[in-house]
Amino acid sequence: MVDTAATDDALSHREFRIGQVLSRAFNIFFKHITTFSLIATGVVLPFVLLGALGSEAPPDQRGVMTLMAFVLYLFLAPLATAVILYGAFQHMRGHPVQLGESVSRGLARFLPLLGLMFLQTLGILLGSILLIIPGLILMVMWYVAVPVCVVERTGPVESLSRSQELTKGFRWKLFGLYLLVLIIGAVGGSILPVVGEALAGLWGQIAVQLVWQGLAQAFGSVLIVVAYYYLRVAKEGMDIEGIAAVFD
């Protein structure tokens, strides 16, 4: 049975509301917290390990390890979002969420996602060099580029353009969503590893940070997917079956 809330979204209104996006994202996330967190933990594992071990490494190796962690995360994060995307849409359709199937469907768009991530990261970095603000603008404009690439099966450039089109008129709201997740992730990521290190040393720090970053990455991915869904509801009046039919 299709999720009745998802059906009602398309039938009752064509608005984009922060509270509604957050509520649906939390609902989906907590119902599948184990599956989604396992997916996200696999993505953040090299980032957390290299980051933590790099802090203990000699100064001449620290920068290399930090850069490696950053690059790995940039290219693995969209894959996690793609995998979680399929699971989130299955939930909204009232279908069971299966880890293996979600991974298989997400990886099917591996190459286009890599191209998308390269262009997106390059654009945001160049924009950030220009007094930071342009980078933030591009980040919000391209917020839903990954679900566009997976669901609409577009190439990297077209995915960025389509995301720009969908986010137009709602970018301040999306910036608020992004800022909220960033602040929560930063606060937890700063405090919890210190607690872990105090309790069990470096490996305690790594374990706590890995769990926290996995949860944060999983929820952030769900939030992007739900935002994409509601943007299409608001802009096009689509329902969940119309959007997710590509997976059939």
What does this structure look like?
The protein has one domain (4-247). The chain is built from 11 helices and no strands. The protein has helices at residues 4-12, 18-31, 33-56, 59-92, 99-107, 110-129, 133-141, 145-151, 156-167, 171-236, 240-244. Helix 3 (33-56) runs antiparallel to helix 10 and helix 4 (59-92) packs parallel to helix 10. The longest helix has 66 residues, at 171-236. It starts with a helix and ends with a helix. The model has no long low-confidence stretch (mean pLDDT 81).
What structural keywords apply?
single chain; 248 residues
What would a concise description of this structure say?
By secondary structure, this protein is mostly helical.
Largest sheet: none
The overall strand count is 0
What is the percentage of strand-forming residues?
under 5%
How far apart lie the N and C ends?
15 Å
Class from helix and strand fractions: mainly alpha
Q: Evaluate the radius of gyration.
A: 18 Å
Q: Counting H and I runs of at least 4 residues, what is the number of helices?
A: 11
Q: Topology, pairings included?
A:
Layout: H1 4-12, H2 18-31, H3 33-56, H4 59-92, H5 99-107, H6 110-129, H7 133-141, H8 145-151, H9 156-167, H10 171-236, H11 240-244
Helix pairs in contact: 2-10, 3-4, 3-10, 4-5, 4-6, 4-10, 6-7, 6-8, 6-9, 7-10, 8-9
